[in-house]
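note to self: the first set is below, dont mix up w the second
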Amino acid sequence: MRCIAESVAPPTSPPTASAPAVQLRGFQIRDIPFVASIVAEALNEHYDTSLYVSLSEAWPDGFLVAGDLLGRPVGFLLGVTQVEGEGRVLMFAVDREHRRAGIGSQLMDAFLQRARDRGLRRATLEVRVGNATAIRFYTRYGFSVIDLLRGYYSDGENGYQMARPLP
């Protein structure tokens, strides 16, 4: 199944050089409106705000936020540990105006390092089958499709489960 990402042409334009600098940090309660807005726009999902709080408490180092120069979140990666030895990317998105500036790479690099530091041996995630850009991104990070998740998303779209080892 890995061929799905390999059949898609790589991106043609480089990251935006003039993109504002970001600083990675842990999630804070005041981030909720920003994160919820990014989730609604980028992931087309709407969750009760208490979810962000409870998940951040379960593994605080797994909830990374990319803040702009004023500290406002412009991207985030919410990782959880639900299976022994495994870190799961539960939610991951960058605000539309800040995409293709390397923010997603910074978040993923930091998450994978934190997962290794915690002694985790594998990382997993789910992605919409129609999201070729995300599938390419994850494939570049060594993730491979391991399962098709029929009707996985709230709108009925199928998803892929992807995984990679954490050496």
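second set (the one i keep forgetting abt)
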Amino acid sequence: MQVEVGAVLDGKITGLTNFGAFVELEGGITGMVHISEVAGTYVNDIKDHLVINQAVKVKVLSVGDDGKISLSIKKALELVQPERQQRARTTAPKRSGAGTWQGPKPSIPLESQTFEDMISKFKQVSEEKMTDIKHSNEAKHGGGYSRRGGKK
């Protein structure tokens, strides 16, 4: 079997090392996936991501003159993931995560507010926040009294 750069193939993990994994392709050909090409995130221990005899999809990165085949699981997954993400975007509405601050809900719809109304509301919220920060800082620094007994 002739292996071409850029091809996405099915394989099976035959060996794991601390620097990568060996993958057997069709026809008994073996290639290697470097640890940096296993997942889209940092991989500290390859055994957390792969096991021997696991079926994987790999993309051929290069074929050396000496016959060494460099493979990537990460890049093979990137080709499959956009389709799934596209389907997810069209079927599920986007929701914000719990705990994400979205600001106060305006009592008047944004479209009917004037610029002056928006500035006035911004000033009010800003002053409230500054007051909260001042109170917090005073509490952290002993309530506004110096160490010598007098007022600061």
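remember for set 2: Residues 110-141 form one domain.
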